[in-house]
Amino acid sequence: MSSRMSFKRRWDIFCTVIDNYGDIGVCWRLAKLLVQVHQQAVRLWVDDLAALQKLHPNTQIDQAKQWLEGVEVCHWTSRAFDMVSMGDVAEVVIEAFGCELPIQYQQAMGQKGEASCVWINLEYLTAEPWAAECHGLGALQNNGVKRHFFFPGMTKGTGGLMCEPDYEVRRMEFLNSLTLQQRFCQRWNLPFDGLDDAIKVSLFAYENQGLLGLLDAFKNSSRRVVAFLPEGKLLNDLNAQLGLSLQAGQTWQTAQLTLVVMPFLPQAAYDELLWLCDLNFVRGEESFVRAQLAAKPFVWHIYPTEDQAHFDKLDAFLAIYPTLAILKQANVAWNQEQWHLEHWHTMVNVLPELLESAESWQNSIKQLGELSENLMTFAKKL
């Protein structure tokens, strides 16, 4: 019997916004899947409603509680749990990315007891082998409740990736419909005429010293390049490096490059941008996952850490990702904040092969099962 038919629980998901939109992006998507696909009752506790508003424009940042797409969204403030009791504790509690639950809530969990409360730490995504080894393990906490570790992943033995049931239908409809593509471009004030003759690239990354080298490669491309740059860190970086003041709705033309500055997109619209483009630059975790599902070649900018541990994550992923060496080299260079002309010149010539490998990878990760479904099964067994 499907978990969505036989398992109905109250869930609390706790999220602190650290990596801009990655943390809240993952938690918001999970909350929607649990409510809309699995018919669960979900409260999403988030400390930065402005970040959620970027992903869901109807979010009211001055509201302590509100309902969005069936999810009860609650503002997680320092006083939110002053009067919490065990009756307020959900039956399944998700601590996203080790955000540390409020101490009052932890105490109420202890009063409720482990038999009535499942505590799951949803971890960061990594392809490193230890993730599969640690997936599902648990450890007793000071409040007497065991905390279990759930690892998203792209390898066997992990929790898989999030994907909506109708995702592939929507993707193929978009790819096969010029009308839908034109409608998307019109909605976000993007050029549509002449796109077929250009290489389309989306640019979503942290600040990167390799940006000017990348744009120089686009300028000198053998084919025309249309690059879509959303508002955010990379646009601010570009304006600072070139002394510009570009903003959403403006276009910058130079040689073979047309740079289109666009608004920061809600989640569903961002999927369509990934589908529209031939190559996607993505960052963090949420857009990294969506790029894989989009079955298009991509370059991943990992959130950089001072100890350089992010290169271990990159190496682990590239070791399992079945693509050409040039794309792997480009991923390494971009995370080293570099870009070389030969990267782009070579990639232009092998775009069909890169697309084929991206499609193959999408098929393989779908075999792992979908994360929210796997999480439901995991919670039910505890």
UniProtKB/TrEMBL annotation:
InterPro entries: EarP. It catalyses: dTDP-beta-L-rhamnose + L-arginyl-[protein] = N(omega)-(alpha-L-rhamnosyl)-L-arginyl-[protein] + dTDP + H(+). It comes from the Bacteria. Keywords: Glycosyltransferase, Transferase. The keyword Transferase applies. GO terms for molecular function: protein-arginine rhamnosyltransferase activity. Belongs to the glycosyltransferase 104 family. Protein-arginine rhamnosyltransferase that catalyzes the transfer of a single rhamnose to elongation factor P (EF-P) on 'Lys-32', a modification required for EF-P-dependent rescue of polyproline stalled ribosomes. This is Protein-arginine rhamnosyltransferase.
